[in-house]
Amino acid sequence: MGLRWSQVGAAYRQAVLVLLGLGVTLPIFLAPGHVSGPRLGDLALLLALPLIGVEWRRMTSALKAAGAVAVLFLIVTLLLQASRVGERLNASDAAFWFRWVASAGVAPAVASLILRDAARRRLLFAAILIGAAGHLASYGLTFLVGLEELQSIGLASPRAVVTTTAAQVRLTTLAEHPNAAMAMIGLAVPAGVILAGRSWAVRATTCGGAGLAVLGFFSTLSRGGMGAAVMAGVVRIVVGWRWRERFRPLGVVLAVCVLAAGLLALQTGRFDIDGGRFAGRFDRATLEDNLAGRMLTWRRTFDLVVERPMGAGWASADEMGAFRALSVSHNGYLFMARTVGVIAALVMLGLHLWSMMRLDALAPLSVYLLMTLFSEDLTQGAGFVFLSCLVGALAWRRPVAP
User: Fold this and answer.
1) Contact (Cβ atoms closer than 8 angstroms) between residue 238 and residue 359
2) pLDDT at 60 over 90
3) Which has more confidence, 80 or 116?
4) Full-prediction pTM beyond 0.85?
């Protein structure tokens, strides 16, 4: 009987890690046709809640305390927001707060599990990599099967698959927005180098992750996500120097050749790469206008944070109506400060910086998350809320050898 329960526990841990990994990069709609419906990441968090009890005895004191304090703080903040006169907790608020409270409790347990067991760590990042590939594949399915058919089974967003900004066509499917889609697909880079380990420069996971990121950029034209992917690769090189890895120039050359061959195949095959489409994203005037607009958005969000430092919670698009644009922050930490509170946002930012400064095998993930959160409102969906809490919990780790 003891052996049977042990096998059940092992299977449960593996299933939870796979679902959580897929839920970060593959936001499948569980309620077809509904923009705000629950997704795979929400289901994964719900199924992962028992993991807190399963892993409790194996968790370090620091992780236990961090998880308990975070959950308590979030619940108190939720109650304070809900107690304001004239305000009530609606379904959107409940879903938003469930993601944060559940992630704060589950993340320390997952951190303990993947730090203690290298095989489980590889399983989680393999699921993230596979989810990124599946997310990218949804673009091809859109053209092969059709958008309406994919929407009917929950594999595409009810929102438009093609968005045009300044005559630049940007594609999106599962994530509903090109920047969010690229942030999820780009996670293939840190996941790939973490899976590769010390032979990162020659492993298929490294080349595959880089290839997925490049193809994702071709579809989304998201500069932030692509820049974060590049920085994750650079940090992996720095980590290799810190841990005195032997540099493998042949592997680097091979990776570059694979990417170049992929680009050539796209150009000479059925896909026509429009150079002007990409050049427009890096035009100086366009970049200046984009930066000016973001600075205006940051200042507006900062004013909202000063007005309500404990956060204002989540408001659905229907409730905000024409003022929906006011909820955009273009910065995950500012968005968190506006919704969850400035204290929680500052603590999260500090933990992410601390995690990155470890300069170990998990540092590429930390720097990738930092850069993507600074460029987009990602701390609202279940996948990136969990990932933010996970990287925060990993700040308490001892350096992990690549």
Assistant:
1) yes
2) yes
3) 116
4) yes
Amino acid letter at 57?
Answer: R
Residue with tokens 């925060």: 392
Confidence of residue 21 (pLDDT cuts 50, 70, 90): very high
| Tokens 């409270």 -> residue | 101
Which one-letter amino acid corresponds to residue 98? F
- Amino acid, res. 184: M
- Whole-angstrom Cα distance, residue 367 to residue 86? 41
141: Cβ contacts below 8 Å, ≥ 6 apart: 150, 155
Question: What is the spatial distance between Cα 86 and Cα 93, in angstroms, rounded to a whole number?
Answer: 15
Which of 8-16's residues contact partners 24+ apart within 8 Å by CB, and which partners?
9/54, 12/50, 12/51, 12/54, 13/51, 13/54, 13/113, 13/120, 14/120, 14/123, 15/47, 16/44, 16/47, 16/48, 16/51, 16/110
- Are 179 and 330 in contact, with CB atoms under 8 Å apart? no
SS3 163: strand
Distance (Å, whole) CA 93 – CA 82: 10
Characterize the bridge pairing of strands 162-165 and 168-171.
Answer: antiparallel
In whole angstroms, how far apart are CA 215 and each of 260, 292, 324, 364?
Answer: 12, 28, 31, 20
Q: What is the pLDDT of residue 324?
A: 46
147 contact partners, CB below 8 Å, separation of at least 6 = 156, 161
The per-residue pLDDT of the chain, averaged, comes to: 81
Per 3-state DSSP, what percentage of the chain is helix, strand, and coil (rounded to 5)? Answer: 70, 0, 25
Contacts of 172 (CB under 8 A, 6+ apart): 157, 159, 161, 162, 163, 178, 180, 181, 219, 220
Per-residue pLDDT tens digits for 90-128: 777 788 899 999 999 999 999 999 999 999 999 999 999
More confident residue, 215 or 269: 215
